[in-house]
Each structure stands twice: as structure tokens, then as C-alpha cells.
Amino acid sequence: MELIECVEEAEVLKIIVNSNEESLFFLLKGYLNEASEVDLVGVSKDHHLIDRSEFYLKVKKGSSKTFFKKMLKDIKKKLEKLKIK
Length: 85
Fold this sequence. Notes:
Blueprint: E1 3-9, E2 12-17, H1 22-33, E3 38-44, E4 53-59, H2 64-81
Antiparallel strand pairs: 1-2, 2-4, 3-4
């Protein structure tokens, strides 16, 4: 996966990658939707044959990029605690 674009404007973070990362982005979306700080989180893909996925995050206040990094650490801890058989 290669990062094409990562832009933060005000409370909105947009990440675009050159691969089919819908599964990863939907996993993140599920966790981020639960946070009260999140105003909007979304995943977009123009076409299933195009290797380009977009992820959007808008927080109610503060830096969306800082919040995203903090949540990634929290999600990683939660996933490490899961017991997979």
C-alpha cells in the first residue's frame, strides 16, 4: 500500500491510498464511529477494479490527524487483547 495523499484541513482528514484497502478502512470506521469526538467518518472507492481507496475523518474539534493517531494506538491495543482461536 502506498500513500497517495494525506491532507488535513481544519477538522477533516483525508487519506488516499493506491490499493484496495476497503477492509482496513471499514474496520477503522467501525471503531471511530463509536467515539463521541467524531462528527463524520467515511470510506470511498470509485470502482472495484480501481486500486484507489479514500478515507475521511471529521472530528468535532481539534486536529483530526492527532485524534486519528491516538485512536490507532487504542485500536491496536484492543485488537491485541482479542483471543483468536
